[in-house]
Amino acid sequence: MFKPHVTVACVVHAQDKFLIVEETINGKALWNQPAGHLEANETLLQAAERELWEETGIRATPQHFIRMHQWLAPDNTPFLRFLFAIELSESVRH
């Protein structure tokens, strides 16, 4: 049975720049959007807000849904990612 890992990610735009975070996967440093897995009893928006907070210290609510895409990790693990957009105002601090 097909059971993909459900994840969310945030494309964060502020002051003509995009926010990316550094993460380490299998000992290799990579750049990514703030992202992570959906937890039990959590909506997609709640997951996006939580991941943004955990990874950046920024509290913000996604304003737009961008897309959903399916992909396979190098080890053939299936993922289903929901991508959201966040436009930060200059007043947002972390």
Automatic annotation (TrEMBL):
Pfam families: NUDIX. The keyword Hydrolase applies. It is an enzyme of class 3 (hydrolase). PANTHER family: NUDIX HYDROLASE 23, PHOSPHATASE NUDJ. It comes from the Bacteria. InterPro entries: Nudix_hydrolase, NUDIX_hydrolase-like_dom_sf, NUDIX_hydrolase_CS, NUDIX_hydrolase_dom. Its cofactor is Mg(2+). Residues 3-94 form the Nudix hydrolase domain. Keywords: Hydrolase, Magnesium. Belongs to the Nudix hydrolase family. It comes from Klebsiella pneumoniae subsp. ozaenae. This is Nudix-like NDP and NTP phosphohydrolase YmfB. Its EC number is 3.6.1.-. GO terms for molecular function: hydrolase activity. SUPFAM superfamilies: Nudix.
